[in-house]
Amino acid sequence: MELDLAFIWAGLIAFSILAYVVLDGFDLGVGILFPLLRSEQDRDVAMNSVAPVWDGNETWLVLGGGGLYAVFPLAYATILPALYAPLIAMLIGLIFRGVSFEFRWRTTRGKFLWDWGFAGGSLLATFAQGITLGALVQGIHVVDRAYAGGWWDWLTPFSIVTGLALVAGYMLLGATWLVMKTEGDLRARARDMAERAAIVTLLLIGGVSLATPYLNPVYLERWFTGPTAAFSLIVPSLVVICVWRIFQGLRDGNDAQPFLAALGLFVLCYIGIGISFYPYMVPPGITIWDAAAPDESLGFLLVGAAVLLPVILGYTAYAYWVFRGKVDPSEGYH
């Protein structure tokens, strides 16, 4: 049986993006919450909780973006012109956040500037990612295999709402991460922030989910007709269960449960987007197979991916295992 290499690569790219969202999402969320932390010690502990893993988390972004360029060149050439502004804003935010990680430990007088750089960079990167997602969901205007839209097509009420939803969602991930990794007053404050973020996230997810099927007739058909209409009941029901588990864990003091349930919430939302998108790589006109490189290139690159992906998964799992447990306030990144 001949392998459908384009489909396999679409799955690998989708997995890479999901891995980035769920792994880098919580440390971006910690950055967004930074100004809400009352003391310098709390901010130090919060940053130390993500310091061992944050740069490794961004490996998945490189893999997803690089893979898109190599494996789906038409999609890459279409998406970039349509989304230059939010993607450049995202990169600027990630740069500020990365530099702030290093510089805030090297100064005393100007430490507050790098605190704001860390928070502002995290917020900018997150909001830009959400706007990018919203612009993709609402569709990119393509004529003759090239972007044919305007400079500001990416900026719409829908994309702004998806940007806000991602900010709230990352705040939820960041707050539940701090609940899991810290103790004392910081944990209690993170618990309160997690409850508020969960409510806002659920409301915004609901708004985006109600609007999405009406952006494209294909989405509407996918969610409300035929055998796939069952997802309209299954996915929202699982979302409600995840939210309930978040609040239950926060109430009962099961510190790991809210974070894992928040991750489950993101996975379900991602599955919902996948259900809407398939088989399109760039909605509404470019499918996975239209965008794919020749099979010879896909096969050659798949050999490299078969070697690299287990390595990346291995060192990621090892890093999280080594730095498991609560953060010791007397130790950390210096």
Keywords:
globular, two-stranded antiparallel sheet, 13 helices, Formate dehydrogenase/DMSO reductase fold, 334 residues, mainly alpha
What report would you give on this structure?
With 334 residues, the chain is an all-alpha fold. The protein has a single domain (9-322), classed as Formate dehydrogenase/DMSO reductase fold (Up-down Bundle), CATH 1.20.1630. It has 13 helices and four strands. It has helices spanning 5-33, 40-50, 54-57, 59-71, 73-103, 111-138, 157-181, 184-211, 217-224, 231-252, 256-277, 288-291, 295-322, and strands at 142-143, 146-147, 280-282, 286-287. Helix 1 packs across helix 7 (157-181) and helix 6 (111-138) packs across helix 7 (157-181). The longest helix has 31 residues, at 73-103. It is globular and about 60 Å long. The model has no long low-confidence stretch (mean pLDDT 88).
The whole-number mean of residue pLDDT values reads 88
What composes the largest sheet? Answer: 2 strands, antiparallel
Radius of gyration: 20 Å
What is the name of the CATH architecture? Up-down Bundle
| Percent of sequence in beta strands | under 5%
Percentage of residues in helical conformation:
over 70%
Name the helix and strand elements from N-terminus to C-terminus, one letter apiece.
Answer: HHHHHHEEHHHHHEEHH
The number of helical runs is 13
As for the CATH topology, it is Formate dehydrogenase/DMSO reductase fold
Cα-to-Cα separation, first versus last residue: 54 Å
The computed structural class is mainly alpha
| Largest sheet, spatial ordering of strands | 1-2
Task: Tell me the number of structural domains.
Answer: 1
Categorize the overall geometry: globular
CATH class: Mainly Alpha
Regions with pLDDT < 50 over 5+ consecutive residues? none
How many strand units? Answer: 4
